[in-house]
Amino acid sequence: MSSSPSEAPRTTGPGTSRTEAFSDGVFAIAITLLVLEIRVPEGDEGRLLNELLAIWPPYAAYAISFLTIGVMWLHHHHQMSFLATVDRGLLNRNLALLAMVGFLPFPTALLARYATATDSADQRAAVAAYGFSMILLSAAFALLWDSVKRRQELQTVDADSTSIRTSRNRSCMAIAWYAAATAVAVLAPWVSLAVFALIATAFATNGPSPRRRPPHIAARS
Amino acid sequence: MSSSPSEAPRTTGPGTSRTEAFSDGVFAIAITLLVLEIRVPEGDEGRLLNELLAIWPPYAAYAISFLTIGVMWLHHHHQMSFLATVDRGLLNRNLALLAMVGFLPFPTALLARYATATDSADQRAAVAAYGFSMILLSAAFALLWDSVKRRQELQTVDADSTSIRTSRNRSCMAIAWYAAATAVAVLAPWVSLAVFALIATAFATNGPSPRRRPPHIAARS
Amino acid sequence: MSSSPSEAPRTTGPGTSRTEAFSDGVFAIAITLLVLEIRVPEGDEGRLLNELLAIWPPYAAYAISFLTIGVMWLHHHHQMSFLATVDRGLLNRNLALLAMVGFLPFPTALLARYATATDSADQRAAVAAYGFSMILLSAAFALLWDSVKRRQELQTVDADSTSIRTSRNRSCMAIAWYAAATAVAVLAPWVSLAVFALIATAFATNGPSPRRRPPHIAARS
Amino acid sequence: MSSSPSEAPRTTGPGTSRTEAFSDGVFAIAITLLVLEIRVPEGDEGRLLNELLAIWPPYAAYAISFLTIGVMWLHHHHQMSFLATVDRGLLNRNLALLAMVGFLPFPTALLARYATATDSADQRAAVAAYGFSMILLSAAFALLWDSVKRRQELQTVDADSTSIRTSRNRSCMAIAWYAAATAVAVLAPWVSLAVFALIATAFATNGPSPRRRPPHIAARS
Description:
mainly alpha; homotetramer; elongated
């Protein structure tokens, strides 16, 4: 577990393992609770098949939110790989991120319930509330990237500052994207939803590959 | 944690531990949420015992889904043991698998509610929806096996390619089995359910034993 | 991580870590889902305090089930410490145990709802159903102990066979205790509930201390 | 994993890893279940936006409870870092703490439902019940700190007894703070709620930084 003396100061901290375990737990639970918002249809007898095909908003809401949380987890994974240790400030910001991740089942349920509401004001309100939650989520994530960038004493010895800066900047741009998509919701809720799905897909396909994790592993090779 | 130099390139990757932890979380939560679909009976006074014996569809749905997710976890466990590291493509496919695992409580609830519906069209729709979810689940799993097989640069040094190919092929056959069982649901829902249970049982009893996990452990002995 | 050559064969297996992680997940989720059965009272205005004090059955059901699952986790922890590795047969039995652990929120909800039912037949049915679940749970646990005892090739090199046999026998006795308490439920449901609480308490206070876990740790000292 | 011979006795215990994993699971699940108490509004058509803005008690209850559980997790993290191993007594006290953590979604739901009740007696009862749960939670935590302090044979070799004593005393003071805030609830429920939020914030900002975790890591540097 240890390494050469010169690297020791950064590998003897409390590490990030329990923080990652707790975060993974919240991510995994929030992502799995999403399914509870898909309700079993209780309609007229003999109409179940039609109703199962008709209730696509819950499926779409599940898919978008699952993708968003899953991709966020992937990026969180990547983010933590730059850290050799954590401190209170970073843990507090991580907790703020988790509070937004854990909150996501609520706007998802809102979307599942009101995406096809006959009243268009309700429809727009649901999509806007979803978008607003996404803005807060991406803002919490950008704040965490900002801490990772500024707190060099917490980083692993080989943390690539260019890569960190790029990730931080990308996370700030995500806020702007979500804000734009949310503004669009007032006029065209469907366009807004499509953009939410696109943003998550873009982060899934252009996101970083998992990093090799030195130094405490590589250092001995 | 390290090993001989020649193996180092494959043991210094990010590893699969956090991916496994996150996947284990989703598997464990999805499997435990299944119980929420068994509702406390609210019938006439003094009839609780009869009702507890009468509501066997929720018990059966719980048992089949628990077995299916549990066996899927066992195979996922086995699957990951061939990997020394993961990359973005593999994580995306793993996320698709988890999305189907996390979705399973919904078709299970559907089955619990409609397996004994008086209207036979509803009954068939519920069983077919359950089967369709199983097809998607096994397809996601087969896609993941396919990645594990093709991405040799992610494998551990001792990964047995014959064993991987066998598992990949078996996972493709599972899709065919589930498709056949789902087609049967239109005519004979009970037969279909029995086949779902049989497939899971077959995978539990004929499945692979957990592999020894070299090289990073074995390499030092 | 490694040890002296003679011990190597038993320390290079797949280990028990992912099995423990998955099991811990199911235990932790089942124990935390119990709270969902305590419903927010929706009675007459101004009567909340009285109602909060009146709904003691859900609190009692929560307490007994939390204690039972918690103590079961503690014993599972102890049980796994005798194993250096797992195989398919053992994983299947572990899955059966987890299926019963994950099922427990249902009989707990039943108890919370019907423990003070005005109809005494309903009351007895709820307590008996709870007891029956406990019998199945303890039977699954005894079966797992039996596997641990018989499968010596899976044990750690220092596994104490006397200690394993004692634990196996105790787990068989637990079935008898739960069966007796369940039989009593037909005549005196309260006595039955008290016995369930007593059994869990007895296992908490007389249970094993966590074992030191050689050889892979101790072997290098 | 090992260290110099003189430290061996304290590093060959069962360790705290599985206890931490199980505890992390309960913390992560309880904190994520909180969102289930925020219900999707089902009001008059076209009024969704107004209702989303009106239902601030569930948001406030979510925020306060999330912060409380999150900070409690952080302190639990810190607390466990002083331990090299655990025994049955400590595990039982840890289980009592987890029972209170897992219970928290219920008083949170109570608060979300009744914080703006028209009947002020209901309002006070809900806030007082929430406060009472906080008293029990902090008492369970203080009892655990007391065990950590007294059980020196379980501590790591470098555990700082001054730091442990300080933490133990702070946890006792938290009981007093929660008791005072709960008493205030009878007269001024809002003041009481504000104090709950303040206590959690105080523990988040003045709490301990994560400790470096010797000896098994540091010992080799």
